Amino acid sequence: MVINTREVDGRTIYIIDEAISKEGIDDFYKFINSLSYTKKEQSDEDDQYPIFSVNFHANKFEEQTEVGSLGKELLEKLRSKEYSLYRAYINMCHYGDVEYPHLDCESDEDDITVLYYANKDWHYTWGGETQFYESHEAVMGVTPRPGRYVVFDGNIEHMGTIPTRICNTSRYTLAMKYSRVKKADDE
Questions:
Q1: Which whole-number Å values give the CA distances from 71 to 20, 39, 59, 65, 105, in the listed order?
Q2: What is the model's pLDDT at position 187?
Q3: Across residues 96-110, what is the average pLDDT?
Q4: Could you report the per-residue pLDDT of 112-133, keeping only the tens digit for each?
């Protein structure tokens, strides 16, 4: 496993490669290609251009898939607080779709997002990076390398960019969203 870190707006973004085997990447890709997607995922309530997605039952996904259980393990390894998965879904986008910069939680919340890039093959010329912003300025992009995980604070502004015209496949990104489990002694 290879873990790299980057700072955005003073917060750490973890980029994890080689956490899952080639066989695991291929198996999950085969699984997601068997699903029925609906065009309903929006960046926010004003988004008039939803993209195709599939929602999973959060607890079952975490317990019954290697990708989900590994996402939880990575979060536990990288963060000292306890978190609970409240949403897991996969987005499928194509050249011509529309995405917008957004937050995954309110700016005063401390939710965590774990992304998993679910394609079994990807060429960097196909685009599709996850772009991160500081003060509405793009400051970092993460290439959707197969099997890569990205762990970041849900209140960092970001956007999944659209594949380029030369990309002849769907771009699949799994998002697992976690909220912090509050303890009685938390302030």
A1: 10, 25, 12, 10, 19
A2: 54
A3: 92
A4: 999 999 999 999 999 999 999 9
Domain that holds residue 43: 2-180
Q: Which CATH number belongs to the domain containing residue 40 in this structure?
A: 2.60.120.620
Looking at the domain assignment, is residue 186 inside a domain?
no
Give domain status of residue 103, yes or no: yes
**136-145 long-range contacts, Cβ below 8 Å, gap at least 24?**
136/101, 139/8, 140/6, 140/8, 140/13, 142/13, 142/15, 144/117, 144/119, 144/171, 144/173, 145/17, 145/117
Residue 120 lies in a domain: yes
Angle between helix 22-33 and helix 66-78 axes, rounded to 10 deg: 120
> Is residue 185 included in any domain, yes or no?
no
Question: pTM (2 decimals)?
Answer: 0.93
